[in-house]
Fold Putative copper resistance protein D.
Amino acid sequence: MTIFQILALAAQAAEATPTPPADMGSMPSQPDGIITIFHVLVLSRWIHFAAVFVLFGSSFFWFYMGRERLLAGPGGLPKTLRATTLLLRVAAPVAAISGVAWLAGILANMTSGFSNLADPENWRLFFFETQFGPVSVLRLTLLAAAVVVTLLPWRNRAWFSALLHIGALLLISQAWLGHANEGGEGLYGAAMIIAYAIHALAAGAWVGGLPPLLFACVEQRHFGPEDARIWTIDVLTRYSWMAIVAVALIVASGIANAGFRVAGSFDKLFDTGYGDVLFTKIGVVALMLALASFNRFIAMPRLRAATLCGMKQINKLRISVAAELLLGILVLLVAAVLGITPPPQ
């Protein structure tokens, strides 16, 4: 299924379902110009998800890699550190801009058009009279803090820790802008928020950690063959253990999230637009898991056994990690569509 088919499928499902998701208010009955509110919401959510995943996952990478990776010398990854720092300094403003666009899309949908965004009264009502207001103010504050932190000249564990915590709060707070906020007050609503938070944090650690992992695999080209083999195995092993835990949490929380959306009746997922998008997401995640399993259980053992051909095995691993990252970006697109597709009732 192509990206355009996914978008078309979700749009058809949204138009055909009378009950809207939480972050949409109500689905627009007519397109607002060439670029519809639906497109703005999907693209802004997709870009925002990717940027926040980088803030969280790429910062987290430097904690399970150990302090020695931040230093020059044996085992250090100075070029990976510089590349990750640059990526984070780009991700923060991108997250801020896309986050504002996301909120603008929500407000445009509530007021039935982009033209209403120019009215300050609509924004006042949005921030102070709707359920989205408090969490939106919090998220805008966090996004501003992320931009400020990335402008600081540090590249130590405290700097990464600040971005890690900001990214975590941004991922968790997304729950109040989507389907997870439909549970209301009480234990049921709290369980929906917790399941979403676990799912988002685990996915952020897995997908968001792939860019620095790829940078690290590329940096190994500048080492000698034996050093490259040893340090690549060490880096990949540390990442894979984190990913194993993350995937387990993703699967468990994903099942819980799906159960909440259909009130425990999983048969509702079949022959519905929401179910089609969800199964598309599951399919892409399955491809990611296949690649990750290949790296962990086939490619890494081959690299451990390699001698003179070690660099050839590292090159194959580098390609596999890059493919996994591309699939991760596609998963985020499908997740962006899924979040504004009304679940079956």
